[in-house]
Amino acid sequence: MKKSIVIVEDDINIAKAEALILQKDFNVHLAHDGETGHALVKEVKPDLVILDLMLPKLHGYEVCKKIKEDPELVETKVIMVTAKNENKDEIQGLDIGADDYIMKPFEGTELKHVVNQVLNKNNE
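RE: above sequence
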């Protein structure tokens, strides 16, 4: 059975591109703001969330924190994706529970590699 991924990204073109890259290997669900994304994660209970930082309604850090504090979602992996490229942003994301961090712009192969790496950490 395919693993599931929720992509929370307010830029619709980036969200569609990420979905296209991943939909062959995963069941992909999309949300375009933090509140909707968090609700979708609670509903789908995906294996992985690809989470933009700069989101309307609820910031990516808050969404990540809510996922990691929810007993039903605590095992859900989170990859933060952002154009903010300062070390402090990455450190803050990892401190609140993100499993990895990708800087925009990125190549499709990089996204696939990081997704597979994060999901396969459990299988080692």
